[in-house]
């Protein structure tokens, strides 16, 4: 609600955040472009830029190469190497961490395999905190960590950020953020989000979905998670569990699912179904197993082709249901689903066309994650940058304490 | 975006709209309550109330009975009999119209049966415009019609408000709003919305869903439509077709659906399935047919009970899928689904509990439409009031021209 006069100070903070978000997401841009984008006058943009420069959040310099004749104008760009966040990703088969600078640049990155089996919080936290320590060693003396966040392959409760359940990694009621924050000892809270939700956030902010107001991101990682963007905002649902599309039932009485039900999206389309249909249950699982089947199908292997066709049918049906319910502009396939979609695109399209209403699908675009395997990690970084983008100077002074 | 200073005039317009919305949705309230709700000081509230009073949008009077001792303070209330909209509803079996006053009060109402069969735009428009003429006859000389809207049982394209498709009434590419506006000759555009979307809007604004940020409204009318509210806003989707849940496939290879697919939510749960399962295909259809089955089941009729159990199972599965995807706080059953849900609630709950994730369903409430059969009509009224609530004085002066 607009009060009878937001104060000059409130307006300034808001505008500082907006300007910083523009260069964080859009990259280097001239003051003239910012003046145009923000609808403010030149002297205001100059003052805002001066404030952010003084705080060390942006700097101005000559552009690399404008391709135009004449004297180029200065561009404002984010202080990528000075202001950064720590982003983590806990997937079924991997633990990843990155130091990501303002502007969304991966400055440093670590990754380890995760052995499948019961969830060991201590071991996960030790690995991730170890990665963080290694990455913080070489950091410039004036660099500031402004946030930390984890993408987790399970449902995360909104009210307290606790992992409610992650059936594919055997996790339940795990205070991951709190434990990791303690172990990092940076005086920063660690925010936790569902990996597919964060993948959606990242693809919307700087991936395949830039400019889309309504999209669905589907993330395959043994199970299937979803992130739904409605009118430019991530759908969280009442308790934070919005987008658990993996447990939408597509085939009643079908394949048993880890959740206790049958015929769920992830039971019919996930890794296990594909390996079994291809007769490769005993072989490589995970990403390698999926890729081997897609490659075999390309080389003409009949069992692999048939397995992809079957899984592609259910994937098309799941997408059709989401398209009818949500009428998104785009559906993005990430994680393992990227490979499965690429190997089964014709079947997916065919089932989609016979199942979704013409009205809901006629404007639809199907895409793979532009950020590839880093979508979830980049989404965690966006979550970690949220405070500094909301109120840059305040967040920075808190972080620098 | 906050510009460097929204003008005093912009702030005043915004605040006028907000105050009017409070009394429109919340009913009579004192200036003290408005001061508290809007976070403004008393003199600003007094000035805003004076402006709205001068325009004839609200008035102040002593409350009916406060139940408290001492001198009661004046309450601000909407000028229900002076400021109204025309709301229309085109369902499969009925055409309805109402004159609805500010504050959401039905001042007058007309209804006619609609014969099933191909869509006859001329006949629909003639009937609705005839209702409007009848209702406008007895209106006070100083009354102002500030808007008009139709709830339609089909998909409505966002870009131009044209009915894209209404399979259950045989409609396709119908310029209903434009034609009705011409025939009404009130110099007002007629906005068109999907009936279930508008039912969701009404139940959220003044029905079972007041105070819920995330809800799903399911509307049964031969077919099944849905309206989804996310974070307090109606989900429209990229082209306006969000919420077409009736064509989510629940039972692949199941009952044929009017859309050309099989096993859709509305094919498994709609009127036709229930009548057939109960062995009553030749008997009464529509609302009466459904109610007869529910009554028969209550009286112990085995076929009716079994029919409700079967349909209740699919209804539970459809709800479970929506709950997993959207994690709403509440699901509301309206139209014919109200009766079906009341007759099959135990089965619906049972299937929901075995299918939806515990996390997504543990906070969920299931409710019937508090506005009953008027939910869609009331939703059309909310759509028609949108302009006057956004900028009261401007919209009023346009309407009074």
Fold and architecture overview:
2 copies of one chain form a homodimer. Chain A is an alpha/beta fold and 401 residues long. The first copy, chain A, has 3 domains: 71 residues, Winged helix-like DNA-binding domain superfamily/Winged helix DNA-binding domain (Arc Repressor Mutant, subunit A), CATH 1.10.10.10; 140 residues, Nucleotidyltransferase, domain 5 (2-Layer Sandwich); 159 residues, ATPase, nucleotide binding domain (Nucleotidyltransferase, domain 5, 2-Layer Sandwich), CATH 3.30.420. Helices cover 44% and strands 21% of the residues of chain A. In chain A, β4 and β5 form a beta hairpin. The relative contact order of chain A is 0.12. The mean pLDDT of chain A is 94. Chains A and B meet through α1, β13, α10 and α12 of A and α1, β13, α10 and α12 of B. Chains A, B: This is ROK family protein. Chains A, B: Belongs to the ROK (NagC/XylR) family.
What's this, in brief?
Two copies of one chain form a homodimer. Chain A has 401 residues and is an alpha/beta fold.
Distance between the termini of chain A: 33 Å
The rounded Rg of chain A comes to 22 Å
CATH homology-level superfamily of the largest domain in chain A: ATPase, nucleotide binding domain
Helix/strand/pairing class of chain A, anyone?
alpha/beta
- Which series of helices and strands of chain A comes N to C? HEHHEEEEEHEEEEHEHEEEHHHHEHHEHH
Give unreliable regions of chain A as ranges.
Answer: none
CATH structural class of the largest domain in chain A: Alpha Beta
Task: From the 3D structure, determine the CATH topology of the largest domain in chain A.
Answer: Nucleotidyltransferase, domain 5
Broad shape of chain A: globular
